[in-house]
Design a protein that fits this description.
single chain; alpha+beta; nine-stranded antiparallel β-sheet; 9 strands
């Protein structure tokens, strides 16, 4: 019975010390042990279908530029790396070191922990997110992949302003592929 009380106490402590940042328009993000990236991204993609996006894609050095508009489903796909970087899973509950440095909330994977998300840095000023950076890495005998993604929120509109996602993939015996996508939004 003592073990059950320990779990209850740890759960209560995590709930009290978790990141609970107010969302836009008075909405609150769910109380979780780490920054609620999934909840934040759900709020971020709402209303983006009215934006025009100048999107630059570079694959292995070849660059293309288009101006497009996207619906909510397309935005979810475009920004999927941020949804994928959610670290609020029960298997990751004690895998990250969390610290605050100036306006930055930083979650960093502990040295002996296993996880795809290596680092998440969030700039928060006056309870509003201004910058979100994530680094992901996958590695096995045949394949390795490293992704760095940045998302910037406009101070004026509190909506997504621009983003960058860069991935380098290496498959055993093949040359590495480098893919970079960046977008700048206009409302």
């Amino acid at each position: 019975m003592k073990f059950n009380y320990s779990i209850l106490i740890v759960s209560f402590f995590l709930a009290l010390t978790s990141c609970n940042l107010g969302g836009r328009n008075g909405e609150n993000l769910e109380v979780l042990p780490y920054f609620d990236l999934k909840g934040f991204m759900e709020m971020t993609v709402k209303g983006l279908e009215e934006a025009k996006v100048t999107k630059i894609s570079r694959v292995n050095g070849k660059e293309t530029q288009v101006e497009i508009t996207m619906n909510e489903a397309q935005w979810r796909e475009e920004l999927d790396v941020f949804f994928e970087a959610d670290i609020n899973k029960s298997s990751l509950i004690s895998s990250y070191d969390t610290r605050v440095k100036n306006e930055y909330l930083i979650h960093e994977l502990l040295p002996n922990a296993k996880g795809v998300v290596k680092n998440m840095t969030i700039s928060i000023i006056n309870d509003k997110v201004h910058l979100l950076q994530v680094s992901l890495a996958r590695d096995n005998v045949f394949y390795s992949s490293v992704t760095h993604a940045d998302l910037y929120i406009s101070n004026r509109t509190q909506k997504l302003d621009h983003y960058t996602i860069e991935t380098t993939q290496k498959i055993w015996f093949l040359k590495p592929n480098n893919i970079k996508i960046s977008g700048s939004l206009r409302f």
